[in-house]
User: Fold this.
Amino acid sequence: MDRPLKNTWGIILAAGSGTRLAEASGGVRKQYLKYRGVPLFWHSARTFSRVSGVKGLVFVFPPEDAKAMAKQVRQFFRSEDLGVKWAVCEGGERRQDSVFNGLRELPTKCDGVLVHDSARPFVSARIINGLVDALNAGAQGVIPVIPVTDTIKKVEGDTVSATLTRSELRAVQTPQGFEKDLLVQAHERAEQEGWDVTDDASMVERLAEVATIPGEQANIKITTPEDLARLEEAKVTVPCVGWGYDVHRFGGENDRPLVLGGVPVPGSLTIVAHSDGDVLLHALTDAVLGTFGGGDIGTHFPDTDPKFSGANSSLLLKETLALAEEAGVRIVHADLTVITQIPKLSPHAAQITKNVCRLLGLDAHQVNFKATTEEKLGFTGEKKGIKAVATVTALREM
Ligand code: MG
Assistant:
C-alpha cells in the first residue's frame, strides 16, 4: 500500500540577532538584508513554495519586530503570491526556542516539518525536494550534509587534544526535515531536560534515527561581513531566449494596410486585425515576453478590448520592453523572419531592420531580418495570409 504523502510545512527562522553582521552592514540584521531587491528570508520562501510537497510556511522573527514583519510578509504575498499558506510568529531567546514557537503555529493536519535558517538564502528546490521525498518515504528525520574538506581537530585551551577522522565527518546544512510529532516531542524533552543545541537534528537523534541526503556547496550560510561580498559576487548573467509566432489573414479594402516592423509596406495588401495587424511586431512582442516568462501578447493586450482597436503595435512592444526591464532582463539580439508569398519584401528589408533596431534600442549587428516564401504551399503559398517568427535573446542577472 502506498504511504500517504505528508502535509509538510517549512519553518523559516529569521529571529536571530546577528550582531556581528548587523554592525558590519550598518545595523541591518542579516535576515533583513536585501539581495536582488528582497530580504534573505523571502528568497528561501520562494524556493520552498516551488516544491509541490510544501503546503505552508511559518516565518519566525525577533519578538520586537514580529508585528511589523507580519505586515511586510503580507505585502510580499500580495505582490507575489507564492501559493502557500503562511503564518508569522515571535522567536525566542535561543534558536531552539524560536523553532519551538514556530512548531506551535503549525496546523494540526501538518505532519511533516522542514526547519530552515533564513541565513541560507541559496537553498535549492533540489534539496527541499529531497527532504520531502525522504519524509514521504518514511524517514523520521533527514538532513542535508556535505563532506568536510578541512581536517578538524579538537582543541583544549590552545592545545590539540584529538584529530577527528575526516572521512567520518559531515558539515550539516538546513533545511532539516522531521516528522512533526517527533520534533515536537524532541523540543519538549529538550525543555524538560535542559538540552542546549545548535540544530534540531541534535535533539531528534537522541530519540530516533536521522538520515542524510547530499547538501550543496552553494547552500552557504551568511554569517560574516565577507559573506556579504560573496552575495554580490554570486550574481551571474544568464542568457534567456524567447520565441514568438504570429499569423494574420489578408483582408479586403476596409481592412488594415500592411505594416511590418512598424514600417508601412506600400501596395494594395491589407490585413484582418483588431490592432494595426503588424504580424512581425506581434511575433517579436511574444518573443520578448518569452525571455522573462511574461506570458503572451493576448493576455497583456486582449483583442477583445476596444482600447487596442487599431493599436499601434510599436507602442505595445514599447510597453512590453518596459515589463522586460522591470523583470531585470536586457534584450541583446533579435532574429526575425516573415513568411509570405506576397509582396516581395527585399526592397523593404533595410528599413524594417532599421526601425526594429530603433524600437529595441539595439545596433544593426544585433537585429537580423529576413523574408521567405513557402514555395506556394499552405495558406501563405495560396496568398491567404502572412506569418512571422521571432527569436529574441536577453541577458538576466541572477
Ligand atoms: Mg497578431
